[in-house]
Design a protein that fits this description.
4-stranded mixed sheet, binds uridine-diphosphate-2(N-acetylglucosaminyl) butyric acid, 24 strands, 32% helix, single chain
Length: 443
C-alpha cells in the first residue's frame, strides 16, 4: 500500500525494551462519551457529563454539536455542559463526519427532536466497509422516510403526529452504534419500541442509564432485548461516563508483554472479564478490587492464547491488535480470528517489519511467538492498530518510530505521559523536530 509522505505529522519514538510497571488511572470511555454527548440533542435542557476523556474524537463531537447550534461549556475536572436549547441546523456535514464515523449518532436524536435530519454517509474506513444500513432500517421501521442523496442520509418524519412510532426492530447483526441510534430516537417516539438482538456493550448500558436520568423509560439495556417506552420530552441531567475498558485492557497487555506488574485504577473490572480470562491463560496473576485490577506476570514470558473476537460479553475486536502483539512475543503459537471487521489486520504487516512471525489466512492470523522484536519505523493505520504498535515499541529492542499517531490521539488520553510515568521510554515529537533529529544524526 502507498502511504504519502507524512513529514508534518507528530510521531512517537520509543526506546525499548521497557518495563511497564506501577499504577495508572483509566480515563472515561471514548465509546461511551461520544453517544452521551450526542444524546444532549434530545432535550432543550443542559446535560452535564463528567469523566469526559481528553481525546480528538471528543473535540470532533463537540465541533459537530457547535455546527448544529448547541451551546457547549468545558469545565475543569473533565466535565462538559451541553445545551441544545435551540438548534440552528439539522445537517451533519461530510467534512466532520468523514473524520469520525460515530457522527452517525446524531441521526436518531436530530430526527426525533426536529422531525428531520441530514447526515453525511461516513465513507471509507481503514478497518472495513462499515455500512449504516441497520441504523437506517430501524428508523424507517419507526416511520421515518429516508433517502440517500448526494452522499447524505436525508431523513424526515412523515407520520400524522410528526413523531416517530414505536416498533419492534430486529437487528440482523449486533451493532453498537446502531442500537444506540435507535434507542435514542425511540425515547421520544409515540408508543413502545423493542430492539431485538441489541448490542450488550457496557457503553450501550451507560447511555441507557443517562437517558433514563433524562426522563426516558428504557429497560433491558445490557441484554439483547431493549424496551423503550416513548415519552413526550426529556429533561436535563448529570451523568458520570464509565471507565474505558479498552484503555484499561491496553495497559494490562503492556504490563503482560513487558513481563511486569501493574494496577489499573478507576475501572469497572467485570467489563473486562473476557480480556482478563485471556490474560490469565497467558500466565498473568490477576486480582480484582472494587474499582481496580492488579496484574502480575512475575517476570515470566507470556503463553500464546487463542482469540476469537465477537460482540460483548465475548472478546472485543478493539483488543485484537494488542493481543496479536502479546502472542508475537509469547511462548508457542496461537490463532487470532477477527469476526467483526473484515480489514482489521493492518498492524500485522508493521509487526512483521519488527520481526514478528505472523501468517494471515483470511480473517485469521496465526501468530508464532519469537524471542524478541526489533525496533523499526512503522506506520499507524487506525486507532487500535496504533495501540498494538505502541506496545510493540515497548517490548522491541532499539528505537521504534510510529508515524501518523493522530490515530492514537482519537482514542487514548495522554498515552505517552501515562506510559512514561510507568517506565516507558516514550516521547512525542513533531514532524519538524523529527527531521531535525535525523539531520543531526546524519552529522
Ligand atoms: N454493521 C452493518 N450494518 C450496520 C452497522 C454495522 O453491517 O448498519 C456491521 C459492521 O460492518 C460490523 C458489525 O456490524 O461488521 C459491527 O459493527 P458495529 O455497528 O457494532 O460497530 P460500530 O458501532 O460502528 C462500535 C465502536 C467501535 C467498535 C465496534 C465493535 C463506537 C463509537 N465505535 O463501532 O470502536 O470496534 O463498535 O465493538 O462505539 C474503536 O474504538 O476503535 C472502534 C472502532
Amino acid at each position: 500500500m502507498f502511504f504519502p509522505c507524512t513529514i508534518n505529522v507528530d510521531k512517537i519514538i520509543i526506546n525499548g525494551p521497557c518495563k511497564i510497571t506501577g499504577s495508572v488511572k483509566i480515563s472515561g470511555a471514548k465509546n461511551a462519551a461520544l453517544p452521551l454527548i450526542f444524546a444532549s440533542l434530545l432535550t432543550e435542557e443542559p446535560l452535564r457529563l463528567t469523566n469526559i476523556p481528553h481525546l480528538q474524537d471528543v473535540t470532533t463531537a463537540m465541533s459537530l454539536l457547535g455546527r448544529l447550534g448547541v451551546k457547549l461549556e468545558l469545565n475543569e475536572q473533565l466535565s462538559i455542559n451541553v445545551q441544545a436549547k435551540a438548534l440552528s441546523s439539522c445537517r451533519a456535514p461530510y467534512e466532520l463526519v468523514k473524520t469520525m464515523r460515530a457522527s452517525i449518532l446524531v441521526l436518531g436524536p436530530l430526527l426525533a427532536r426536529l422531525g428531520e435530519a441530514e447526515v453525511s454517509l461516513p465513507g471509507g474506513c481503514a478497518i472495513g466497509t462499515r455500512p449504516v444500513n441497520l441504523h437506517i432500517k430501524g428508523l424507517e421501521e419507526m416511520g421515518a422516510r429516508i433517502v440517500i442523496e448526494e452522499g447524505y442520509i436525508k431523513a424526515r418524519i412523515e407520520t400524522p403526529s410528526g413523531r416517530l412510532q414505536g416498533a419492534r426492530i430486529f437487528m440482523d447483526m449486533v451493532s453498537v452504534t446502531g442500537t444506540e441510534n435507535i434507542m435514542m430516537a425511540a425515547t421520544l417516539a409515540e408508543g413502545t419500541t423493542i430492539i431485538e438482538n441489541a448490542a450488550r456493550e457496557p457503553e450501550v448500558t451507560d447511555l441507557a442509564v443517562c437517558l433514563n436520568a433524562m426522563g426516558a423509560k428504557i429497560s433491558g439495556a445490557g441484554t439483547s432485548e431493549i424496551t423503550i417506552e416513548g415519552v413526550e420530552q426529556l429533561h436535563g441531567a448529570t451523568h458520570h461516563v464509565i471507565a474505558d475498558r479498552i484503555e484499561a485492557g491496553t495497559f494490562l497487555v503492556a504490563a503482560a508483554a513487558t513481563r511486569s506488574k501493574i494496577r489499573v485504577r478507576q475501572v469497572i473490572p467485570h467489563h473486562l472479564d473476557a480480556v482478563l480470562k485471556k490474560l490469565e491463560e497467558a500466565g498473568a496473576v490477576i486480582e480484582l478490587g472494587d474499582d481496580y485490577i492488579d496484574l502480575d506476570m512475575q517476570g515470566r514470558k507470556p503463553r500464546a492464547v487463542t482469540i476469537d473476537t465477537a460482540p460483548y460479553p465475548a472478546f472485543p475486536t478493539d483488543m485484537q491488535a494488542q493481543f496479536i502483539l502479546l502472542n508475537s512475543v509469547a511462548d508457542g503459537s496461537a490463532t487470532v480470528t477477527e469476526n467483526i471487521f473484515e480489514n482489521r489486520f493492518m498492524h500485522v504487516q508493521e509487526l512483521q517489519r519488527m520481526g514478528a512471525n505472523i501468517e494471515l489466512k483470511g480473517h485469521t492470523a496465526v501468530v508464532h511467538g519469537v524471542e524478541h522484536l526489533n525496533g523499526a519505523p512503522v506506520m499507524a493505520t487506525d486507532l487500535r492498530a496504533s495501540a498494538g504498535l505502541v506496545l510493540a515499541g515497548l517490548v522491541a529492542k532499539g528505537e521504534t518510530v510510529i508515524d501518523r499517531i493522530y490515530h492514537i490521539d482519537r482514542g487514548y488520553d495522554c498515552i505517552e505521559e501515562k506510559l512514561s510515568q510507568m517506565g516507558g521510554e516514550i516521547q512525542r515529537v513533531s514532524g519538524r523536530q523529527y527531521q531535525q533529529m535525523l539531520a543531526a544524526a546524519a552529522g
